[in-house]
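call fold(seq) -> tokens
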Amino acid sequence: MDARRHRLPLSAFATALVAALALAAPSAQAAVNCPGADQLPLLSTTASAKSATLCLINAERAFNNLPALRSEPTLEAAATGYAQAMVERSFFAHVSPSGQTIDERLAAYTTNTQSYTIGENLAWGQNVLGTPVSTVNAWMRSQGHRDNILSENFEEIGVGIVPGSPRGGLLDAGATYATEFGWRELDGATVRASVASASADDEIVAVTPKSTKLRKLTAKQKRRISEQCHRVARRTKASAKTRRARYNSCVKTRTLAARKAAR
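ret:
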């Protein structure tokens, strides 16, 4: 399993799903009926699988007194395209082998905005572990993924599901998931501040309004951010290009967050 900007080995993903299934299902899932939630997605059933996944996610939000996320076409197209790419190109990460990051994937969503908040959850599983209910259940047992699902900062979502897996390709008896979370304030809309976080294991990237004047960071603050992002870049094995992209994206995000906190 994987969360926003946090990559785990494929073996750890499988272990995480098995561990999640061994625990009792969340109360929200036990109390809701989402058609197709326990069926492995096929080419002919991806639409119902997406609906089931969104149904389960919104059930978790309702259980925690949060408003439902609404499906957004731009986010869904990006999610589906990325899930397809992971299966076809046999990789599983928030940064693609070519160095593409979530910021680039969701550029069509964030362009012409005053501010926005975006996040991403990824998962893949084989057989019963690839069903919507198994996937959402596992996400809810992982803090980073759970934080995205229950974030008050998101209002929209795009769910992408592709049969197959990064390990076995399109013919594998499994499914690969990408969920893109978002909130944005379009130019001309009522000003609303977005929330940024600079925690070491942050799974959400938040960008402050472009018009906001932010203070410059001290050399000590810059050095601390650089050290944190070097650790993030080295978290798993990857090519030098991928690590460089991961580092640069981390520095950009945490610098914005720290500058906003210093206002």
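The beta strands are 2-3, 70-71, 113-126, 156-163, 174-186, 204-207.
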